[in-house]
Amino acid sequence: METKNGSSFSGQIGFVLAAAGSAVGVGNLWRFPYLAAKDGGGLFLLVYLILILTFGFTLLTSDIAIGRKTKKSAIFAYEIMREKWRFLGILTFFVPVLIMTYYAVIGGWITKYFIVFITGQGRLAASDGYFTQFITSAQAPVFFSMFFMILTAFIVYNGVESGIEKCSKIVMPILLVMIVAIAVYSLTLTHTDGQGHLRTGIEGLQFYLTPNLEGLTLSQFMQVLLDAMSQLFFSLSVSMGIMITYGSYVKDDVDLNQAVGQIEVFDTLVAFLAGMMIIPSIYVFSGMEGMGSGPSLMFISLPKVFDAMGPIGTIVGIVFFLMAAFAALTSCISVLESIVANCMELFHTTRKKTTVFLSLFYCAASVVIALGYSLFYVEIPLPTGNTGQFLDVMDYISNSFMMPIISLLSCILIGWIVKPQWIIDEMEKSGHRFGRKKLYTVMIRYIAPVMMFILFLESTGLLERILE
Ligand code: PFF
Predict the structure, then answer these.
(1) Atom of ligand 1 nearest to the CA of 26
(2) pLDDT at 100 over 50
(3) Structural domain boundaries in the chain
């Protein structure tokens, strides 16, 4: 069967690198290391590894196989599976629709920091209040998010093979080399603090790798499990229709089993290396108290660490923010592509027209979100007990609320209605061996739905209330 609209990846490598590009994003860089540091180092790594090989593998396999089998994006793919389940396709479609409003804003922040470092102003970025001053200004964040949005749109506009695949084939290998280089460098760091204590990168590495089971209670272990689960879910870009869209561009002779394994390895390796790069650096220069998560880690703590490295910190900063920009760009591309692909199928429009229209829309949306820290500043209470600005609200609705529900429903659809054999047939197409077939069936029918339900309760704050 031809792939839809004649668009396809040229082969397995192109597909794996594009999918890995989607998977490797800011989540790998600013959340994985934080969770590993918080959740007992090696203990978290071990739990994460087991989950990625079972739970992550099940969700990723499902999405990619649905895409390739139906040759459609989420809305029509679910409709083909069962007409009455079109609603699930629509729900899935709305995840990237929401994520897209803020992903280019984050990409813009990263671009700004790259420019700051490459123009030799890294020291400035390390000063107190710099990040707050930047995001609360009404011009720079808007300018940089528009730039990032237009760059993303340009690549998507050029199509699957000559846009997305080409970009991923250049960017992803460079990203890997850069992260390995900084990770190795961070192991060589040493620093003597004010009290005369010498701290080394190797000690930081030990902290990262050693499983810390001290005083571990059952409820803490549950927390580690839930943290790892929500992280890998976001990290693999599953249950948001993106891997369905990318799967729809995969030719029938590609071995999906192998491809799924390679995507898992790539994503996990980058997350692991991010920890190896960030944890020792933070440990050496500020002790583990400096280990935050999200924007505060990337834009406040790390610039201080780079500054403390002395002159070489400028180079490390340049490489780090370029690498982060690459990670964000390939993820942002996948989000836009998934929206474009769904809209092309819905409205029978061309790629170019659809991309231009959606990009204009998202430029406007990005402006609103970027101004969410200045002109449109609000404090909206979230069910988790925190308050957030527009960006946090979009992130909360799409990731904490919608993704677990979508995953739960799609496990029910595949496991109990269309039946796992439907996916297995696709995985075994062209005579390929689906080695984890039994595991897949048990996971999709029994384990994944229960886990998704618990994750949903946790991320909406309901679990805490029930256990109170
Ligand atoms: N998987 C990416 C990460 O770990 O950062 C993020 C991501 C990409 C999220 C694409 C959502 C998305 F639609």
Answers:
(1) 5
(2) yes
(3) 4-467
